[in-house]
Structure formats: C-alpha cells, structure tokens
Write a structure and sequence with these properties.
- By secondary structure, the protein is mostly beta strands.
- Among the domains are: about 10-145, no CATH class; about 160-190, no CATH class; about 395-475, no CATH class; about 485-570, Jelly Rolls, CATH 2.60.120.
- The chain is built from one helix and 56 strands.
- The strands form nine sheets. The chain has a 16-stranded mixed beta sheet, with helices on one face.
- The radius of gyration is 54 Å and the shape is rod-shaped.
- It starts with 11 loop residues before the first strand and ends with a strand.
- About 35% of the residues are buried.
C-alpha cells in the first residue's frame, strides 16, 4: 500500500532458533520510521525490543553505534524477526560471533543464509524462488552444485522413486500412474501416443513396440499393426506374420510368414524376409525367398522357393542354400541349389549327405555326394556322382561315377566297394565287382579288380605315353610282367602269373594250368632254370591238351615254352 510518500509492503518475517547469544545488526544506516521487531514466537507482534524505531543515523537496534545489539540467551528459543514498512533497500543480520549469519533484506524481499565466507541459501520474497549456492535463482528451486535427497521427491503429481535405476533405464510413468525406472523398450511399449502416420510414405514411424514385440511400421498399408507377440520378439507389422511358442525370442521380418509351430518350447526362430516362409522349430533360420519351410532344429534355408527341411528322421542341422523345391530329410544334410533335389529318404542312416545342384538328384545314404547333373541317384556310403545324367549307384560304398549317362553300379546281394566309372554311357559294374575301373560304352564288369576301356560299336584304342595309338593297346615305352620263381613240387598257375621260372634242383615240378574256358587269350611263359636231371611237367585241366598232347615236359637246362589259352586248347606260340 502507499500513503503518497512511501510504499508499504507486507512485513517480511524470518523465523529463527537461537542457541546462544547473538547479534542483530543492520549493515547500512536505517531510515526513520523503519520498524524492526524481534520477538519470541509466543509473544504478540511488537513485543520485541521495546518496539524501537530505527533512525537514519542509527545502524543498530537501540544503540547509536555500528556494533549491533547483543542479546543474551540463557536457553535456546525460537524468534520471529520482521521488518515493517519496507522501503527501498535495507537488510537486517542475525549472526553469531565468527559464525554463520542470516540476512533479512527489504530489497523486494529476500532472505540469505551464509557462513562467514560462503553463501548457503537465498530466498527471494517477491518471486518465491529459492537458490542454493546462488543469489540469482531462476526457478522455484535453483541448485548450483550436487543435490541429494534422503527421501522421496515429488515432481508435479508424481513422486520420484527412492531407488537408483540400473544401466539403460529411464524414469517414466507406468500403467498405474506411478513414476518408476524401466527400460527404454518397456517404456516405449507403454507410450500410447506413439502411432504410425496414416500415410503411404516412408516417413511413417519406423518401429512400434506392441505387446512386447517390436514391429516395423508398414508404410505401404498405412499404419503400424501389432500382432499377438511377446517380449523381445521382432516382427514386421501389418504383414500377416504369426509368432508362436516362445514368441519373445523370435525375429520375423517377412510377409505372411510364421515362426514357431505353436508349441510352448519353439524358440529363437528367424525369418529375415521373403513371403510365406515358415520356421517351425527352434534355432532355425530362413533368410528369404518364398514358400520355404524348416521343420527341424538348427535348420537353415538361404532363399529360393518351396524348399523343405523335414522333421523326419530327426533331421537336425539341415541346410538348403537356395533353388526350388529341394528337400533335406536327414541330419547334417545339405543342398546348395538346383531344382527338386533330395537328400535322404527318412531312414536312420540318411545323414551327412550333400547335393551341389542340378535337378532331380537324390542321395539315399550317409556321406553320399552328388555335385550336380540330372536325375542322378546315390545309395552307398560315401559314394559320389560328380555329374552327368541318370547315373545310379544303388549299392556302391566309397564308389564314384564321374559323369556320363545311364551308368550303373548295382549288386542285389552286397555292396560294390571302391569301384569307379569314369564316364561314358550305359556302363555297368555289378555282382560285387570291387576295385574295378570302367570307361566306355555298354561296358559290363562282374568281377573285382577289373579295368575296362572300350566302346561296343567302335572298338577304341588305348595309348600309354602315346596320343595316337594305332593298336588296341599301344605302349610307347617299356612294360613289366609278373615273374614267379617256383621250387615246390606242385604249383598251380593264377591270373597274376605270366613268366614262371622253375628250379628243379631239389625235385621234379608239376605246373597245373587253368581251364582254357576261364582264360582264353592268356599267355604263360614257362622255363626250366636249373642244371640237373629233374624235369618240369606242364599239365592242362582234365580233358584239355597242349598242342593236342595230354601234357608237356621240360627236361633240359634253360628249356622254355610259351603257350596261349584258346578254344582249341593250349597252343604253343614260341
């Protein structure tokens, strides 16, 4: 209020509790008509220091000096100090000697608390601001320095929690309206203001956390759409995706794609993209493509269309890199690509097989391999077809068909082991013909340890160190044959013999020949190499002859004979 010469304010009051003798001083001269009142809180206003008025030449209460007025207190008590008729700028200090002070100022009304050297607290009477560590508070509470609260602090309608949040947590309001610490993801899920703009542009909100799953915004369809999903899961929204099982572990960024088969334990399934893909077992992945499906644990399909890793026969760790309509049924089976290739038949032994590509190829045994080609089939342990068309290993362990067409390895009773068809067409290795080597056309091998090269229509030539052979076998160089030295009384020739040297120094020797019906064209060279009176008797099979004679003898030193098996019996060709 104002009386024309002064402007009066409501009294500025300071409540204080004193514990010992104190001083009440005014650092500056006090104009007349200023009323300083100090009183106990239980006494009426004006009952302080005789209600004395300060004069402009007096700087203390009741004294004409600047020493101040000392009040002696026998016990602690509470006081109220007030300044009435506040004008201009005046301050009043309540202080202990050498200790802290409180200043009551009429400059728009303020209170300061400070020690002998540092200001502690400043209260602005007009603005209502409180400063800690500053005389110019800009806010209701302005702290310069570190603040600590031992109890809850209320901010607006909310109380700050007493506990300290953990790493990556933020303060937010939960569903009950309580201010709590929570993760950014969880806080984002509770933010109902986060919506996708209803527009067909990529400016749409890129992510939406709904029902504990992060969905990408579908800008093409217009708005984000949350499916029934779960904690930590990620799925593309508004795209017809379905998450089953432990949904919080899935990633589904495809369209109309499924992760999990609906079982509670299906977890960590991934569809990175594509359309209509289905990952139905835990820890499996489809990168892209369409209509691909993984039904087993730890399966992987890179892309392509309509590829399948089946659940049959515990098909774990299956891989299909791409292609179309390929199928893996067997543990550790893999197909790199191609069309309608198949690894495994669902049998227990179908595992660790591989098809590189091609079309309609099929492996049906463990460790089997088809690198490519068309309609090739391998049913043998660790057997391989490198390519070609319609080649088949039906029972050939560790065997190989290098290429060609319509080549076959088959044994109805046993497996053909370690045999090779180098190529050509319509060649056959069968009847347990192990360790055989074939190349040509319509070659048929039924016995083990054979190497056959020919063509049924045009007899080919084989050159050894000769690129233009002029004979069926043309060896451009030396060759060696097996040499057998015989000392026993009786010796029966074999298919590995050619040169037979007989030492008769201890006894006569009988050489038994095989039937010509089993070795037509075979040649033997037989020689007596010892100087004695014993002999070598060469005996053909029963009913057969040597040059029309029932046997042939070598009696002289270094005597020899060369014979060949023919349909007419054994004949000398020396």
């Amino acid at each position: 209020m104002s009386d024309g010469s002064y402007t009066y304010y409501d009294p500025l009051e300071l409540y204080a509790r004193v514990t010992k003798d104190y001083y009440l001083t005014t650092p500056n001269p006090v104009p007349a008509d200023y009323l300083i009142d100090v009183k106990p809180v239980d006494k009426p206003h004006g009952s302080g220091i005789d209600s004395k008025k300060f004069h402009n030449d007096v700087g203390v209460v009741g004294l004409h000096s600047d020493v101040g007025h000392e009040f002696e207190e026998s016990a602690p008590r509470e006081l109220v100090i007030s300044i009435d008729s506040l004008l201009d700028s005046i301050s009043l200090q309540l202080a202990y000697e050498g200790g802290s002070s409180v200043e009551l100022s009429s400059a728009h009304g303020s209170i300061r608390f400070y020690t002998s050297s540092d200001e502690i607290l400043y209260l602005d009477y007009v603005d209502g601001n409180v400063g800690i560590g500053t005389m110019s508070p800009l806010y209701k509470l302005d702290v310069v320095g570190v603040a600590r609260f031992s109890d809850s602090v209320k901010v607006g309608e909310y109380w700050l929690p007493k506990e300290i949040g953990s790493m990556s947590q933020v303060l937010t309001v939960d569903s009950t309206g309580k201010l709590v610490w929570m993760s950014v993801k969880r806080a984002y899920a509770l933010d109902t203001t986060v919506v996708c703009d209803a527009e067909t542009s990529h400016n749409c909100v890129p992510w939406l956390l709904s029902d504990d799953v992060i969905f990408t915004a579908n800008w093409y369809g217009g708005c984000c759409q949350g499916c029934t999903t779960a904690y930590y899961g990620i799925a593309k929204g508004n795209a017809g995706n379905v998450l089953n099982g432990v949904k919080r572990t899935h990633v589904n960024l495809g369209a109309y794609s499924t992760t999990g088969a609906g079982l509670d334990l299906d977890s960590f399934c991934v569809v990175s993209g594509g359309r209509n893909n289905r990952v139905l077992e835990s820890f499996s992945i489809i990168v892209g493509g369409k209509l691909n499906e993984v039904q087993s644990l730890y399966g992987f399909i890179g892309g392509g269309e309509s590829n399948l890793i089946s659940w049959l026969n515990n098909t774990t760790y299956g891989v299909i890199c791409g292609g179309d309509s390929n199928t893996v049924i067997g543990r550790y089976g893999a197909i790199c690509g191609g069309h309608r290739n198949k690894v495994g038949d669902g049998r227990i032994g179908d595992h660790s097989a591989f098809i590189g590509g091609g079309e309609y190829n099929h492996t049906r045994c463990e460790y089997a391999t088809i690198l490519g080609g068309y309609a090739d089939t391998v049913n043998g342990i660790a057997a391989t077809i490198t390519g070609g068309a319609k080649n088949v290993i039906l029972s050939g362990n560790y065997s190989v068909i290098c290429g060609g067409e319509n080549n076959l390895m088959n044994d109805d009773k046993d497996y053909i082991d370690y045999s090779v068809i180098l190529g050509g067409s319509d060649n056959i290795i069968h009847n347990n013909a192990d360790y055989s080597l074939v190349f040509g056309n319509e070659v048929i091998v039924s016995d083990s340890y054979n190497a056959v090269f020919y063509n049924t229509d045009h007899r080919g030539k084989v050159g050894i160190c000769e690129q233009n052979p002029h004979s069926t076998l043309h060896n451009h160089g030396s060759f060696a044959v097996n040499v057998s030295i015989v000392t026993n009384h009786v010796y029966t020739t074999t298919d590995t013999d050619m040169v037979i040297l007989c030492n008769t120094s201890s006894n006569n020797i009988v050489i038994n020949l095989p039937s010509v019906t089993t070795c037509e064209g075979r040649i033997y060279v037989i020689k007596k190499v010892s100087s004695d009176f014993n002999s070598v008797l060469i005996a053909p099979a029963t009913g057969e002859t040597i040059d029309d004679q029932p046997n042939y003898s070598l009696t002289g030193y270094n005597q020899r004979v060369q014979i060949v098996a023919t349909s007419l019996g054994w004949k000398r060709i020396d």
